[in-house]
Amino acid sequence: MNIFSNKKILIYGLGKSGLSAFNFLKNKNNIFLYDDNKSNEKNLNFKKKLISYKTILNSKFDRIILSPGIDIKTCKLSKFLKKNEDKVYSDLDVFYNFFKNTSITITGTNGKSTTCQLLYKILLKQKYDVRLVGNIGNPILSVKNVKKKTIFVIEASSYQLDYSKIFKSKYAMILNLSPDHIERHKTINKYVKAKFKLLANQSKNNLAFVKKDDILITKELKKRKFKCKIIKVKSKNNYNFLKKLNNDYFSTEANKENLSFILEISKKLNLNKNLLLKTIQTFKGLKFRQQIVFKKNNLTIINDSKSTSFSSSIGVLKINHNIHWLLGGIHKKGDKLKLPKRYFENIKAYIYGRNQKFFNEKLRGKIEYKNFNNLSEALKNIIKVIKKQRDIKKTVLFSPSAASFDAFKNFEERGFYFDKLLKKYSDEF
After folding, report:
1. Model confidence over 110-159: pLDDT tens digits?
2. Exposure of 429 by Cβ count < 10 A (0-12 exposed, 13-18 middle, 19+ buried)?
3. Where are the domains of the chain?
4. How far apart are CA 251 and CA 315, in angstroms?
5. 291-428 adopts what CATH topology?
């Protein structure tokens, strides 16, 4: 049954996903648009579709498409949305309503984008008609020329899944789970529940791949039964394949684990093994995700600006030598540093940004640290230290373990700024 045709629809949030939803649905429905941020409405070509706050409160809608960035609890239309919660849907729901193509949906706390990108490249090389969409930056409703054989690789955030009602994916992956976005979901249980909506909506003939021995995943699987077939993934199960790899990118345990998900689904898709290995061998990862930006004369510099929690920094902290760790920003609520003691002496921390007190408390008595006014000052200090260590193997690790919004628009801007600083000081190291 088509539930998004010939309806009166409110699209709330005019970012990429909201505008793509409008363009997709505008010829089939009576659409109205609203955004809390009025600057998002300035350059629109369809201002006649905008609706005022007061008019919304006195209107009835058949469907409300909510952008993932909108928080029902704090937005201007909070009370209205709570009264009409049964009418709230996501762009994932709209997609599923119109397309019944094979989809592979990937979620988790860390590694989603990289895993999606690698799987997309693998399927392209294997001659599939494949689209990479979702939280990775390409709105799912912006796709064109979809055919029956088109496969979708979808990155899904907890925000998207939380608002979705009917979305279903033939293949689903939960890579890992650790406390994240608690300021939005309020409790870790609600965050986990949002992620597991992906499995809850699956049918008997669907497959779900989840990380084995992940505490939060294991706990949720014990709580309730799911109709789908669940495959528990562990990197050790793919030891022989990983042994053949000659790619430094997959030296961290986290990247090996993410790769193992791809190896497991490749068996179900009957992919060509030789071509699969060739594609993985040449994969360099995405920008600002454990990206090696300099390697020479006993010095390695890594730009891991994407790191927004301790859990996303752990893997790279474990495999490098004599680490000078740059971290700081806005900490994640409930975040904990779960790094074994044996690694502490290998690390010196240089803390900058808004929540220095939080990071001081987490590192005190474990890792030697200093506080700095800003990232530039911290990097200058590191350069002074490493100049005295010319004959020692060392790593400068920019892995903030925090959100970037105290000083930057997003992690990309933060990553570009770090690269800019490296160019500025390049003569010194």
Report:
1. 999 999 999 999 999 999 999 999 998 899 999 999 999 999 999 999 99
2. middle
3. 8-89, 94-281, 291-428
4. 9
5. Protein-Tyrosine Phosphatase; Chain A (3.90.190)
